[in-house]
Amino acid sequence: MKLQKQDVQIAKLIDLETNRQKTTLQMIASENHCSPAVREALGSHLTDKYAEGYPGKRYYGGNQFIDKVEQLCIDRAKKLFGVEHVNVQPHSGSPANAAVYVATCAPGDPVMGLALPMGGHLTHGTKVSFGGKFFNAVQYGVDEKTHLLNYDAVEKMAREHKPKLMWVGATAYPRIFDWEKLGEIADSVGAYLVADIAHIAGLVAGGAHPSPVPFVHIVTTTTHKTLRGPRGAMIMVTAKGLKKDAELPKKIDKAVFPGLQGGPHENAIAAIAVCLKEASTPAFKKYAKQIVKNAKTLAEELKKYGFNLVSGGTENHLMVIDLRNLPHRQAGKSITGAEAQDLLESAGISINKNSIPFDPAGPFKPSGLRMGTAAITTRGMKEPQMRQIAGWINEVISNHSVAPKIAQEVKKLCKKFPLPK
Ligand code: DSN
Fold first, then answer.
1. What is the pLDDT of residues 102-111, one digit of tens each?
2. Which residues are identified as catalytic?
C-alpha cells in the first residue's frame, strides 16, 4: 500500500509482473515460486544492515541478531545436505563459483567443465566468462548419439590435462549424474571436484536425485531454482573435501569475503534459512518427487506427439526439445527455438530457447527449447495437467494461429492452481 502512494510507476509494474506470473505457466527450468514466508524475510529490515565478516567476527557492531540469523542458515544447510561447512553469503551462482576458483586455483591453472552448448554453465570454463578468461579451461561434452555425459571422454581429458579443478553441473542436462564415477576420475588426477547442483538442489534435498556429497569435495548451488528459495547461493565443503584439504573452509570463506564481496545480503540469508526449513519437511520431499513425475509425464506426452527430446527423455525436472525435423511441421517451414519461445509465450507458456548438443545453429537462434516443471508443481499441478500442457504445446507449434485461444485456456488452468499464498 505504501509503495502505491510513494511510487506508482514501480507499484504498477510489480502488479503487472505478479499478474503475468499468476495467469501464465512459468516453465523456464531455472524458475520457481517461493513461499510468502520467504518473501517476507526478503522484504524485512535485515536489508538495512551491514555485516561484513562472518558470525562472531564482523567489522561493524550491532550484529548480535544478524549473527544468529546467518548461523541458523548455515546450520540448516549443513543438516539438510549433510556437509561440514557452508558459506551462505554469495550473492548468486556466478560469484559462488568465482569464489571456488579463487579458493582452489591460481590464474592460468588447468580446469575442466561441461561445455555450455552441451548443457553446461557459463562459469564452468566458457571462454567469455571468468573461468575461461583467467584459467586454462578445457571443456568436455556429451555423447553424440545418447546425449549422456561421455564419462570415457571426461576421463581421457582429465588424464591429458590434469585439471586442478573439475566442474560437474548443468543448466540443460536432463539426466542423473554418476557422481561416484566422476569422483573416481577426479581422484585419479588429484583434482578438486565441484558439483554445481544449482538446478537440482531441491531434488537432492528432497531425495529425488542422488546426492553428490559423498563423492565430491565442494558443492555449489543457487537457492532459487528447484530449492524454491530467494535469489542467492551457497558453497558447501564435504567431509571428502575436508579430508583433501583441511584449510578449504577457510580458503572459501576468505575468497567470498574479503576476496570477492563486501557486505552480505542478510535479508536474503534469512530468506534462504526459511527456504531450508521448508525444504527439510516431508511435504517438500513429496514436492521434489512430484516435480520429477511431472517432468517424466510431460516428456512422454510430448514424445507421443512426435517431439524429439535431447537424450530421449528426462530423469530430473527439465527436458530439452530438439525442434529440427518435427514430423508435423508445415512442409518446408521449420521453427527455430527463438520463434517457438515467442509463440509459446503468446499462448501463456513461458519457456526458453536453448542450444541442443552439437547444435548446427548458433547460440542466438538455437534449435532447442528447454522447459521444466518446478514452478508448475509448486502450484499443485500433477500428471493430468502435464498431459493438458503437452497437448497445448503441440497445438501451438503445429498451428500458430491457435495461440490466443490457448492463452485463455492456460489462464483458466492457472486460476485453479494459484501461486503459493
Ligand atoms: N540462468 C540459469 C538458467 O537458466 O539455467 C543458469 O544460471
1. 999 999 999 9
2. 50, 52, 196, 222, 225, 231
**Percent of all residues in the chain with a pLDDT value above 70, rounded to a whole number:** 98
Ligand 1 centroid to Cα of residue 369, in Å, is 14
385 half-sphere exposure, CB direction, 13 A CA radius: 23
The amino acid at residue 60 is: Y
Q: Residue 31 burial (CB < 10 Å; 0-12/13-18/19+)?
A: middle
Is residue 122 within 8 A of residue 129, CB to CB? The reply is: yes
Report CA 414 to chain centroid distance, whole Å: 24
d(CA 220, CA 213): 11
Bridge partner residues of 320 (DSSP): 370
Contact by Cβ (8 Å): 101, 130: yes
Cis preceding-peptide flag for 327 (omega within 30 of 0): no
CB of residue 93 inside a 6 A radius of ligand 1: yes
Which domains, ranges and CATH numbers included, belong to the chain?
39-279 (3.40.640.10), 282-416 (3.90.1150.10)
Give the Cα separation of 148 and 141 in Å (integer): 9
Please name the residues in contact with 344: beta carbons below 8 A apart, sequence gap of 6 or more: 350, 351, 369, 393, 396, 397, 403
Phi, psi dihedrals of residue 82, rounded to the nearest 5°: 70, 45
C-alpha 259/C-alpha 87 separation (Å) is 13
Closest residue by Cα to residue 206 from 31, 377, 387 = 377
CB count, 10 Å around CB of 398?
15
For residues 241 and 181, give the distance between their C-alpha atoms in angstroms, rounded to a whole number.
17
Asked whether 111 and 165 are in contact (CB, 8 A), the reply is yes
Helix, strand, coil tally for the chain in percent (to 5)? 50, 15, 35
- Please state the atom number of ligand 1 nearest to the C-alpha of residue 352: 4
Say if ligand 1 is within 6 A of residue 120 CB: no
| Confidence band for 329, pLDDT divided at 50, 70 and 90 | low
Secondary structure element (H or E) that encloses residue 57, with its range: strand 57-58
- Ligand 1 centroid to Cα of residue 114, in Å, is 14
- Residue 311 near ligand 1, beta carbon < 6 Å: no
In the chain, the amino acid numbered 182 is L
- What is this structure's pTM? 0.97
Among 97-111, 239-253, 298-312, 328-342, which is the least confidently predicted range?
Answer: 328-342
Residue of minimum CA distance from atom 3 in ligand 1: 30
Q: What digits encode the pLDDT tens for the residues 254-272?
A: 999 999 999 999 999 999 9
Average pLDDT across the chain, whole number: 96
